[in-house]
Design a protein that fits this description.
The protein is mostly helical. Helices cover 71% and strands 1% of the residues. It contains 13 helices and 2 strands. Helix 5 runs parallel beside helix 7. It comes from Zea mays.
């Protein structure tokens, strides 16, 4: 009987060699990531002691987003995937903010002699244009991947918006991001109140309040209150259904209190006064509409009971 390093032929026939495909896939992805980085950085060396998160950070900094997201989907499961997606999108969102701050600093031109000053302005203008293009690329990247993964993790728009507002207190959220809060899964605007999926108008409203964006918060609330009041005749019956419409009334109270506190502290008194008047008018109209709808529902119920009594 022929022998080998693994035993006799009869013993080999009884051996079962198991290959874990999942482990092979993970090793392949890591090898591919390291190879892609090595083409960008000849000195790159990833050791086994480093965490997968560290590798992902390097990939994101080098704009290798596809392989970074592939690692997230392959190495984590369920809730852990969402945590890692939160982390990745926060980093990408911060890159958008860093370019914006760089653009601000690039506008500060030191005083130089006239001949050198002209050259400096031309050079500075070209740098600003380059940074603007880079910033535009970051925004496009953020929009592309957010649209791709928000169905997997519906709260991602909230994470991105909060990161932007926290990182840059003066930043204006891009229109496409705001629309993600205003649209439902089918892509239609949420028109019945401000509730929806995790990234709904109410979530955006709370973010605006949390980060002192009182004007944006007020305008957003007024927009939906007016949309609620101006329902088409065919939609009025739906509006009058119990619990058909919901607004974040507790958050509205917080906004009102914050505006009052700012007025008492002497900060932006005129603006706060205008916002409070706008908010008060919209809320009064809304509450009056709710009262009318409630009375209509009660009267219709009473009429229905009266008809039943007559028929009996």
């Amino acid at each position: 009987m022929e022998n080998s390093a693994f035993g006799t032929n009869s013993e080999l026939s009884r051996l079962q060699f198991c290959v874990d495909i999942e482990i092979l896939e993970k090793e392949y992805i890591l090898t591919e990531a390291q190879y892609m980085l090595s083409t960008l950085k000849s000195s790159f060396d990833f050791s086994e002691s480093q965490s997968i998160e560290s590798l992902m950070d390097i990939l994101i900094n080098e704009k290798l987003y596809d392989i970074a997201f592939t690692i997230v989907l392959k190495f984590w499961k369920e809730s852990e995937i969402k945590k890692q997606l939160d982390r990745v999108f926060s980093v990408i969102a911060q890159q958008c903010c860093s370019n914006r701050s760089d653009n601000k600093s690039s506008k500060q031109v030191p005083l130089l002699p006239s001949s050198e000053n002209d050259a400096w302005e031309i050079n500075n203008r070209s740098i600003a244009v380059t940074q603007q293009l880079q910033g535009s690329n970051h925004w496009e990247t953020l929009e592309l991947y957010l649209d791709k993964y928000k169905d997997l993790h519906p709260r991602l728009p909230v994470i991105v918006a909060e990161t932007l507002l926290y990182t840059d207190p003066e930043i204006e959220l891009p229109l496409w991001l705001v629309q993600m809060f205003k649209a439902n899964k089918a892509g239609n605007k949420i028109s019945w109140g401000m509730s929806g999926k995790e990234a709904d108008p109410a979530a955006l409203f709370r973010l605006y309040i949390n980060y002192g964006r009182h004007a944006e918060a007020t305008n957003l609330l007024v927009e939906y209150l007016e949309s609620f009041a101006s329902s088409r005749p065919v939609d009025v019956l739906h509006r009058k259904k119990m619990s058909a419409v919901w607004f974040p009334y507790t958050a509205v109270e917080r906004l009102w209190c914050q505006l009052g506190e700012m007025q008492r502290a002497g900060h932006s008194v005129d603006q706060c006064d205008r916002l409070k008047k706008l908010l008060h008018g919209a809320l009064m109209s809304h509450l009056q509409q709710v009262v009318v709808d409630s009375d209509d529902v009660l009267s219709s119920v009473g009429d229905g009971q009266g008809m039943e009594d007559q028929s009996s």
